[in-house]
Design goal:
CATH class: Alpha Beta
Helix content: 40-55%
Strand content: 15-25%
CATH topology: TIM Barrel
Oligomer: single chain
Number of helices: 9
Radius of gyration: 18 Å
Structural class: alpha/beta
Shape: globular
Largest sheet: 9 strands, parallel
Length: 256
Amino acid sequence: MKRKLQENLKAVEQRIADACLRANRKPDEITLVSVTKSVPFDVIRTMVELGMQCLGENQVQELTKRAAMMQEWLNRRHRDATAPMLKRPRWHMIGHLQRNKVKTLLPWIEMIHSVDSLRLAEEIDAQASKIDRVIPILLEVNASGESAKKGVAVAAATHLAEQIQTLPHINVHGLMTMAPLTEDEGVIRHTFERTRELFDEVVSLRICGPQFTELSLGMSSDFEIAIEFGATFVRIGSALFEGIELAPQPVPAEDH
C-alpha cells in the first residue's frame, strides 16, 4: 500500500508540475490538499509518513475524529526516541459546514474552504473569539450556477466578502469553487474563469487586504485546468488512492 501510495503521489506531483509548466507557473505556488474522505486511518498515517502535510475532510465528525487519532498517534511516536520525527498535518475543512458544528471543528482546523453565508461566518467569529484565534477562511462561490451546489452566488460574493471582512476573528484568504462533474471541458473552464474573474475583482476593490491570495479550485478530474486559472489549492482524493484497496467505511449521518 505504501509503495502504491508513493507512486500515486509522485504521479500527481508530476501532473501538477506539467500543468504549471504549461501555465508558466511554479509548482511551489500550488498546495496539494489530500482529501481523506472514506480513507482508513492506516492509509492516513502512511500519507503523513510520506510527507503529505495538508489533509482535507468533507465531514466535521470525520475530521475531528481523525485529527484526534492523528494527534494521539504522533504523540506516542514522538515519545519513541528511535522513531523519525514527523510534522503534524494541517487539516482543512472542505465540505459544507453547518453552524452547530463550528465549535467542535475550530480547535482542529488550519483553514475552512466552505464559508458561504454571513450567519455561518458570524458563528465562526463568535466561537473563534472564545479560543483566541483568527480563522483563515475561503468564500465558497457557486460559480457554475447549479441549483444543487452550495456556495454564494457570484453576484452576491463581493458584498458578502465586505461583510465578513469586518469580523475580527476571521481572515478571508480567497475563494473556493467546485466545477460541475462533466466531461465538457468548456463548462469546467467557464466555472473556473468566473471564479478567477471574481477573485480579481475582490483584489482590485481592496476588500479583503493582502492576505487575499488563495484560490481553491480543482479536484482529481480537473485540477490541471484549475492550475491554468490560478489555483493555489487543489483538492485531490481519488487520484492519490487509485489501485489501493480501501476498506468500506460507514456512511456518516447527515449533519443537522
